[in-house]
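ok so I'm stuck.
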Amino acid sequence: MMNILIFGAAGDVGRRAVSEAVARGHTVTAVVRRAGQSTTLPLGVACRVANIHPDSVPAALMEGQDLVISALRPPEGQEALLAGLTRAICLAARAAGARLLVVGGAASLKLPGKDTTVLTEPGFLPEHLLPIAQACQEQYELFESMKADDWAYQTPPAMLVPGERTGQYRRGLDEMLTDEEGNSQISMEDFAVALIDEAELGLHKGRRYTVAY
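replied:
not stuck anymore, here's the structure
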């Protein structure tokens, strides 16, 4: 069993990752922005309130942790902070000797059979999603520049939606996964299953990977 620290623990992916890790017997510390967000977490989970900035990641948060998961998503209008936040968390985790597992975005994935990506394919993304997609692309480029065996980068498929936990999914690497009907999706619950599977198995140390049905 591991000690796992989860940033963004009150978010859609973060709180599901907390629940999945707790269900498997890991000791979880959840980091949230506001004290009131702790009510969304399972009973017994240690909660820390911290407003993380690119130049301010409290080192004390990392002490005694085996693994750090970053499921952070900046508020609307502050998407450009994402790469800096990820870099700060990576450096703090590295200094503490903890592995890092980052929840990325699908922006950098190649479309099946094409040279274009989710971000660069004309008209693929609705305009309102472009700011977070561009931020996730910058986050991925940061990962590439700092690539090392002490962290990995999990990206969703085209659609990441609330649903059910089936425990089933497929893994891929640099290309967006689709099913036989061309759908590219996974439930947030199974995305969290894949995240904690990676935490336990370490199958993709030092690289980006993706999961989908």
